[in-house]
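Worked example 3. Consider a protein that binds zinc ion.
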Amino acid sequence: MKKSPSSRRGRASREADVLVEFAEGLAQSGSRAEDHFWESRLEHEIESLLKDGDEGSLNAALDRLADRESRAYEELADAIEGRVEHAVAATSDGPRDVLLFAAPVLAWSRMPLPTRPIPAAVIKATSQALSEVVFTPAADLALANYFFSPDQLPETFCDTADLRQTLTKSLPEGVCKVDPATLKETAQFLADQRYIIGVVSVPQGEAIFRWQSGDANREQVMQRWMEQSQAALAPLLPACAFESMLPRAYYVACRDADRSARPFSIRASVAFLATTLSVSPNALTAVVGGCYNRQLEEFRVGFAVGEEEEIIHGVVWPLLGAEDEMSDVAEEIETTLKDSGIQHIVMLRQRLPMEYCDDCGAPLYPNADGEMVHAELPDVAEQPSQHLH
Ligand SMILES: [Zn+2]
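Given these inputs, the predicted complex is written out as structure tokens:
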């Protein structure tokens, strides 16, 4: 029977009601015993919605709780993300925990940053490095054979859960083939994140990461991974400077990368401009302004040489998580610029519009007068400007 749109909406609303009720129950619970009660009901409900591909009900429940700014929103978001990235798989050796993880990389280059299939030899070296320094000896893993840009990560909860399931099926081979034709195009920035994505599987309840098993603490794991991954990932990033980040569960790793990419982009831009223009960082001026839709969405930083009017390069610093106008974001940007060697910093106080170039879609950046302008690198650069219009 064909369902009318209104009956579908009614159904989505009933299912969202259930999620809201359970999440509010969990938020108001007064004991671990009651927590477990609500958590298991919430988990069961989320699992069946993911199985049905019912993204609408998950988002409807989140939207409803977001309006009320309740703790229940955090509980529900945690429960959904937790269920999307983790499952218990039945195997002939008994039940195993399977966790979707990401190993983010921050990279910058004068050339377009690569996003590409990962050759078998790099998959092998990366798996080996992950097994030796990040995951416990009991862990099996499978990696997707693609070096993802942020634009190419799954967009919905259901798609992310599907990726986890596809990777889980590839555990015996250790590698999962991704069809590049199914992935989106990537917006090019001087500096950006790239991701190695995989699943790790251990006997249910056992340690997944080395820092859980007492072998090493988080800092030691990070140090060893930075060293090992430089060699393993170098073939993927020719002519790029890059830093590996700690491999963690998928959602937290992506959030770590979003946060670290902001100061990384500033440092990369200063290094790029200083070498391209053969000037020292203190010859550059940075103009920082907050861009608004209904509320503050992001800061944009325009770079100029000395007192010159032209903006030659720009960086977007998006707000993340609970950050808003009251957060110390502007101060953090100013500190990052100073630490990168920039001494001339103009902090604009006015509300700027979120404007983009009509021709190429590039963000416009503020100049010292508070006008939004197109960043144009002068001709001294070896390669032609990306914006010739
Ligand atoms: Zn343009």
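Take a moment to read the result before moving on. The CA atoms of residues 43 and 79 lie 7 Å apart. DSSP finds ten helices and 15 strands in the chain.
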